[in-house]
Amino acid sequence: MATTSRSGARKSRQSATIKLPAELGMDGMGELHAQLLASVDSASAVTLDAGEVQRLHGAALQLFCSFFRDRGRAGRETRWNQPTDALRSAAALLGLTELIQLS
After folding, report:
1. Which distant-in-sequence residues (6+ apart) come within 8 Å of 8 by Cβ?
2. 84 backbone dihedrals φ, ψ, rounded to 5°
3. Average pLDDT, stretch 46-53?
4. Beta bridge partners of 80
5. What is the pTM of this model?
6. What distance in Å separates the CA atoms of residue 42 and residue 64, rounded to the nearest whole number?
7. CA 47 to CA 31: how far, in whole Å?
8. Is the dihedral of CA 25, 27, 29, 34 positive or negative?
9. What is the distance between the alpha carbons of residues 22 and 2, in angstroms, rounded to a whole number?
10. Closest CA relative to residue 101, chosen from 58, 56, 53, 50
11. Half-sphere exposure of 44 (CA within 13 A, CB side)
12. Could you tell me if 54 and 84 are in contact, meaning their C-beta atoms sit under 8 angstroms apart?
């Protein structure tokens, strides 16, 4: 479901993008966890492409919280690309907007 691609103008400025699927249900949490875990220690910027997210389980938000916390502690850049209203609403409902940098 989630895919990772790397691109950049120069090798030292590479960034990783994790494309999130429209449905982030429990059945996809293993794959999402693996994708985030593979990128958590990346020195390059990581972008979560959330332009298709329509439904998500609270477990996905927990994974995002851990991911943003760990990368933030290490001083690594993490950002969102096109977070949907569904994602923003779910994060706001649980009070996670600032923690996962959606404010």
Report:
1. 14, 15, 44
2. -80, 165
3. 98
4. 48
5. 0.85
6. 15
7. 17
8. negative
9. 10
10. 50
11. 18
12. yes
